């Protein structure tokens, strides 16, 4: 085993600690040997230093950063500009004396704290709390302000302070970020060389999207490199966070705002490229996993499911290129399947919705899912297919689509001269249809009688509707603008709503 060549370091290879051999470059090798500070020391070919003599900025990926993102890092890798700076130059005898003094001072400190605890009297020290070494300053000032608060005191200026404190457990995604001006950032690089003491000069600024990489060099040849953000391989993590915008905001708007602020960022092309590489595959993987679990739950229950489906196109009208069809389990309100159809795969864009439904039904039935009911809109091709090809599945129309169409027709009829009262009933008629569908437990005949009772209700007649629904169930109503049977407005209402409505399954 090889032992670390640093003074007072007992680390050897095979102890789970990374080792790094001395660089072959003469200038860098000279800096390493100088920092070790061993008299007449010339390292052999296998000599090296362990990771404990370097700071986190010297590694491409530090152990603390790898642990924060849940990545298991087996071996550390040094940057080309890394220089060892963490050493203990004391002699072993001095170290022994330091450890003895430390143990003695720790024991003395414990006795002092114990005496202070015994001498403390809670009755006389409720107003003033002494700040001891084991007391946090935040807690001390908090108790001080609580005891001496002045209700008339006002600050000299408006100060906004974020209470978030730094913690090693904060991941790069949740870590706070700040907007720093370049002129202020340059002040941080006015530092001296750790080898010769001369002032470092900035020789390169490399901007990669939102990341800034600064390289400083000294006259002695030593280099110092600084990164504005951690990286995953060669990609700054800030670029990844900008590309994975889960907020749903428009990338062009967000990136344009950063551009007007002169904040370094990624381009639109990079945004969509990184979404394609990282975000889309992640969402697809999660959806596939959840989809398998949902289907397994359905198979375990061993009973038919009631599903609802609807299509959506990329653009309105008859020129859409893509259409998606979504199927949902109505008992759990969870999505079971999504199918994407392109217009050139079918006869025209109007056929994309029926094609998406057929693909979803085929997929679910191949997985062993038994379907008892299907709820859709009144798409003509779907109605014909379900009536002729799939009579084994009960087909229902979504009441929302029906009510929306009736509401629009009543509003349009109410704009005609002499039919203003029809428009006053538009919202009530729409709500009545919702109530008919939700209160009839799937009985089509009962839904029909409740719906047709509207023709009597609008004329202030609330009994004698039919055998299944003889009278209205509402409380006594107040006077309102009732319609009169036989007049033009009543006939318009009758033609628009109940008489033209198809009620029941498999229509």
TrEMBL record:
Stated name of the protein: THAP-type domain-containing protein
Annotated SMART domains: DM3 (SM00692), THAP (SM00980)
UniProt-annotated stretches for the region Disordered: 89-116
UniProt xrefs under Gene3D superfamilies: THAP domain
InterPro entries tied to this protein: THAP_Znf (IPR006612), THAP_Znf_sf (IPR038441)
Domain THAP-type: 1-87
GO molecular function: DNA binding; zinc ion binding
Xref: PANTHER family: PROTEIN CBG10204, SI:CH211-108C17.2-RELATED-RELATED
Keywords: DNA-binding, Metal-binding, Zinc, Zinc-finger
């Amino acid at each position: 085993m090889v032992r670390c060549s640093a003074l007072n370091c007992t680390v050897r290879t095979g102890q789970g600690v990374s080792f790094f051999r001395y660089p072959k470059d003469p200038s860098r090798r000279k800096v390493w040997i100088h920092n070790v500070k061993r008299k007449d020391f010339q390292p052999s070919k296998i000599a090296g230093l362990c990771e404990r003599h370097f700071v986190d900025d010297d590694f491409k990926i530090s152990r603390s950063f790898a642990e924060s993102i849940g990545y298991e890092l087996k071996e550390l890798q040094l940057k080309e500009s890394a220089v060892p700076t963490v050493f203990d130059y004391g002699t072993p005898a001095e170290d022994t004396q330091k450890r003895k003094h430390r143990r003695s001072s720790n024991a003395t400190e414990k006795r002092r704290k114990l005496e202070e605890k015994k001498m403390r009297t809670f009755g006389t020290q409720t107003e003033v709390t002494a700040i001891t070494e084991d007391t946090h300053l935040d807690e001390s000032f908090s108790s001080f302000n609580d005891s001496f608060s002045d209700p008339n005191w006002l600050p000299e200026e408006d100060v906004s302070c974020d209470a978030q404190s730094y913690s090693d457990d904060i991941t790069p995604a949740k870590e706070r970020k700040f907007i720093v001006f370049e002129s202020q950032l340059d002040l941080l690089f006015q530092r001296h060389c750790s080898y010769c003491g001369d002032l470092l000069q900035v020789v390169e600024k490399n901007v990669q999207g939102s990341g800034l990489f600064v390289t400083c060099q000294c006259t002695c040849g030593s280099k110092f490199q600084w990164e504005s953000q951690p990286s995953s391989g060669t990609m700054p993590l800030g670029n990844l966070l900008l590309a994975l915008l889960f907020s749903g905001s428009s990338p062009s708007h967000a990136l344009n705002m950063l551009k007007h602020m002169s904040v370094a960022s990624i381009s639109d092309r990079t945004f969509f490229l990184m979404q394609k590489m990282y975000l889309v595959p992640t969402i697809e993987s999660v959806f596939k996993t959840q989809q398998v679990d949902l289907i397994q739950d359905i198979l375990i229950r061993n009973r038919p499911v009631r599903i609802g489906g609807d299509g959506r196109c990329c653009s309105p009208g008859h020129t859409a290129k893509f259409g998606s069809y979504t199927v949902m389990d109505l008992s759990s309100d969870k999505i079971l399947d999504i199918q994407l159809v392109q217009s050139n795969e079918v006869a025209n864009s109007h056929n994309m919705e029926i094609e998406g439904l057929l693909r979803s039904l085929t997929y679910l039935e191949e997985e062993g899912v038994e379907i008892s009911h299907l709820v859709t809109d009144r798409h003509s091709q779907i109605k014909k297919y379900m009536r002729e090809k799939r009579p084994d599945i009960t087909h229902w129309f979504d009441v929302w689509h029906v009510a929306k169409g009736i509401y629009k027709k009543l509003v349009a009829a109410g704009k005609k001269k002499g039919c203003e009262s029809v428009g006053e009933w538009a919202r009530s008629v729409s709500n009545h249809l919702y109530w008919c569908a939700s209160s009839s437990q799937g009985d089509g005949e009962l839904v029909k009688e409740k719906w047709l009772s509207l023709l009597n209700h609008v004329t202030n007649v609330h009994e004698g509707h039919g055998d299944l629904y003889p009278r209205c169930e509402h409380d006594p109503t107040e006077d309102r603008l009732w319609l009169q049977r036989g007049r033009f407005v009543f006939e318009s209402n009758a033609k628009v709503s109940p008489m033209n409505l198809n009620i029941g399954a498999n229509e």
